[in-house]
């Protein structure tokens, strides 16, 4: 039987599944803080945009490790509602807000932000397209920090190559992605691989606990069944092929006079 791709799954169902989970993709608070450590000049005047923020796990990590003003943006209103509820619970309303919007049509002013942050989301619009589009919203010498699915090797088994190329058509090697950062007007500052636990402990294990409950709720719904089958397959493939791919944090600094 032919496997479905991520693009054939109902995004409303995906959102419903993940809304109850702490994370919507691989990562960890420790790796968010590690990426933040490469960024200079942080202060209470710093402005951060967190794009494709989901329910805001990393948004809160940024808020708790900086004094920055943070605008978090996501396409799904239900995710933003949950994020803003967390903001209120933590008493961060004076400097953190969630808004509904699209990563490829940002409602911001040119050079509005010191940092554009995005974990596990840039692949939805394309690595090169995202970096090129977002650059105009960064101040001179502002930073971009994103996690993105990347190959660790130049060659890999055909079945995992097909799986990820279907999901993220532009997926490439770390070296190529760094060259794309340079091509789109950034000085590469750092690139590091997220540890395996960001996938296993923080992404797959919490999902597994929710699978049966979700299937019971959507009994007889083939779309829901296909989605859970896809998630289980993703975990199986990671266990088998994790030496070939993973998420990489890329941090770049805008070249202020680039293109002149």
What's the average pLDDT?
93
> What's the number of structural domains?
1
CATH superfamily: Vaccinia Virus protein VP39
Q: What distance lies between the first and last C-alpha atoms, to the nearest angstrom?
A: 53 Å
- Shape from CA axes? globular
Largest sheet: 8 strands, mixed
CATH architectural group = 3-Layer(aba) Sandwich
The CATH topology annotation reads as: Rossmann fold
* Helix count, DSSP H or I runs of 4 or more residues: 9
How do the helices and strands follow one another from N- to C-terminus? HHEHEHEEHEHEHEHHE
Q: Residue ranges: pLDDT <50 for 5 or more in a row?
A: none
Binned, the helix content reads 40-55%
> What does the radius of gyration come to?
18 Å
- SS-based class: alpha/beta
CATH class: Alpha Beta
Task: Report the β-strand fraction as a percent range.
Answer: 15-25%
The number of strands is 8
